[in-house]
Amino acid sequence: MIGTYARGAKLATIRIMKIGIYDPYLDDLGGGEKYMMTVASCLMDRHEVSIFWDNKDDIIAIEKRFSLPLMATKLEPNIFNNKFNFTSRMSITKNYDVLIILSDGSIPFVFSRKLFLHIQQPLPIKRSSSFKDKIKIKIISKIFYNSKFTKQYNAPIFPNVRSTVIYPPVFFRKTNTKKENYIIHVGRFRVKDVGTNDFKKQSVMVETFKKMVDQGLKNWKFILAASVKKEDEAMFALLQKNAKEYPIEFHINKSNDDLFNLYNKSKIYWHASGYGEDLETHPELAEHFGISTVEAMGAGVVPVVINAGGQKEIVTDGKNGLLWNTTEELAKQTMQLVNDQKLLRKLSQEAEIRSKDFSLEKFSENIYQLIQS
Question: Could you please report the per-residue DSSP string of 239-273?
Fold first, then answer.
């Protein structure tokens, strides 16, 4: 099918492709799901896009949670679950020009003209050298990663497969809202080892802020905005209980608009994923990119974030934010900003400039280039 779209003052002729998108964790409402559904929403303007999933309510929840327009996509049965055998999947996928799949390292047998895998985090998989595995690798057109950090750890798993990095698009809406003395963190609350720790290290940040208050910090508030799933509510309640009697606010399962409002009121952003972990052995425990960090920067919030994972690709220490290695450094650098308004303003301006490198326009163009490659 042939169509046209405007680019500048010219009309470009394109072939409208049939594209299928599959994310096995679509009901998780995490960063990977936001990324994949943004791919869908970008491509649906020029192509025929289908999402392989069985529950329409999950798509509606994604639209609401991330403010993504997906109504022009088609919802197709999930051909990657056990209800569909190899023959059925072969018959269906051969009708697609492009399949884009969020992968945990596995490679599905499909018969589309092109297959693109997206990988969001370092994988523990060691690829076998079996004939079947060699055939699977050959059907991959290209792998695209969400950061250089992720690519660094995964590229050796897929020898001779072309790959690239396409940073997530970051949505932000800066307003003239008056800034308050708020330190903010936004992230999903996930239990890593029940009763021991949390994946995003929200408890580490709570304890650091409490210690700062005990040591004399006044007139500042810590805002912790978290998405919390039903199975993690009990552990999250313990975190809330531990923060009582301190100026700490919890905002749970808020919409994008609510989060933008909080960003625009805040001055400093904290992120701690990977703290205290053996990241050489388990690099997947670091932040793979850091969408919330860039969202905060887009609202002029100064990032004070851990010197690990994808955070190092976003923040240049001393230019558009500050990087730390210990919680003592986190507290010290934060107090530096609290006490030096000139430095806070300078880094705020630079943070906002840096955030523009992760625009939706750049992401869309990169995705279009990918499917043409």
Answer: HHHHTTTSSEEEEES--HHHHHHHHHH-SEEEE-T
What DSSP designation does 317 have?
A: B
Side chain identity at residue 92, one-letter code: I
User: Is the C-alpha dihedral spanning 291, 143, 28, 38 positive or negative?
Assistant: positive
The DSSP line for 106-142 is: ------SSEEEEEE-S---------HHHHHHHHT--E
pLDDT 10s digits, 174-201? 788 899 999 999 998 877 653 445 778 9
β-partners of residue 286 are: none
Q: Can you state the percent helix, strand and coil of the chain, rounding each to 5? A: 40, 20, 40
The dihedral of CA 153, 158, 159, 165: what is its sign?
Answer: negative
- Torsion, Cα 318 323 326 327, to 10 degrees, reads 90
Tally of helices (H runs) and strands (E runs) in the chain: 13, 17
Residue 84 CA to residue 135 CA, distance in Å, equals 21
